[in-house]
Specification:
Blueprint: H1 2-32, H2 69-73, E1 74-75, E2 80-81, H3 86-106, E3 110-114, H4 132-135, E4 149-154, H5 159-166, H6 170-173, E5 176-178, E6 186-189, E7 198-199
Parallel strand pairs: 5-7
Antiparallel strand pairs: 1-2, 3-4, 4-6, 5-6
Amino acid sequence: MDNKTLLDQLLELAFSWFAKKEIAVSISVPINSQPESKPDERSADIGMVPASAIDWTNGSYAISKHFTVKEACWLPSWSVMHIPSEEEKQNILKQAAKMDLIRDFLNVPLRIHCWIRPVLNNPESEFNGKDYNALVKGAKNSAHKIGLATDYDAEGLNCDVVREKLEPKLEEWQIRMEKMPGGNWVHNDCAPVITYRYFNP
């Protein structure tokens, strides 16, 4: 009787061990058979995109949630694309993060008039080495020169209304804005404050 009980116990233990193993296998198979998760194709929605991950020669490439390389680097008066330096790339991405805040806050598309106004760095262009900011008669110390400023208008919104909406946000978002009553574009930048966040051009 004792031997039978011991044998029964051993068989029960062995059965239990195999059963648990089978259960473990049956649980792990569906987990392991799941397709690999893909990288977030909208990584621009989540913080700043690394400059090294951006194709700066491709105008349609996203630099942030809402903006592209062309919007930041296109020089309309010359119809050429600027290829930014490493420092300019970092500045453009910093400004793009601020522009995403503005775009989300206004909740309408923004049409970019001007972003960077550099000394052109494109050996394939006849304008290589020429100063775009000087061409358009920009301010000598303009934040546009280094990619930290953007001029734009907002779809369906008067620019004075946009400035009125943004003024209370300037300190919170650490941005500046030009006072341009009646102007047909809005200027925002993230350059250091010299006098006021809402300043006269």
